[in-house]
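Quick question, first post here. What does this chain look like in 3D?
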Amino acid sequence: MPWKNGKGETVEIAVFPSGASIEDFDWRISMAAVAEDGPFSIFPGIDRTLAVLDGNGMMLEIDGRAPALLTTESAPLAFPADIPVTARLADGAITDLNVMTRRGGLTHSLIRIEIDGATPVPLPSPTCLFLCHRGTVSFRRNGETGMLRDGDALLIEQATATVLEIDGEAIAYLVAIITGRPQANG
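> Answer (accepted):
Ran it through. Tokens below.
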């Protein structure tokens, strides 16, 4: 689908509620190819976390912050999606992983995991997405088993188990969607 600002395309991995548009999602996980420097789309009331999956990285100029270089080795970077952000590519196109949640009702986390053998992956919330970016892994959870390869994702909803058992060799990412509204003071 085209970016909100019309300057690129994204592949939607998962969205809630199902079928939600770019304007009315509660949470959204996607990958995008970034081929040129330019501004990010503005999403009012949305928090975003970005990780570089492939390519030589990009410098993010986030309003009110020092510029940040994001590479495949960097930890994912969280920032508000409703402030000006400009990307400058380090050396050629990149592919990124983007997680967005609607502020006030949801938060999220995104972590990069290097899998080398049997690895228990904690599931910090009832809604998680495990993305096998590069490699092959088998998984086991609540008697369910399966195999994930490059680019495969496993969406876990209403998780009752607290751990996803993973075995194999891969670079993976775990997204946790956390429900909760900030508590009022007083």
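The two ends are 44 Å apart (CA to CA).
The chain is about 0% helix and 60% strand.
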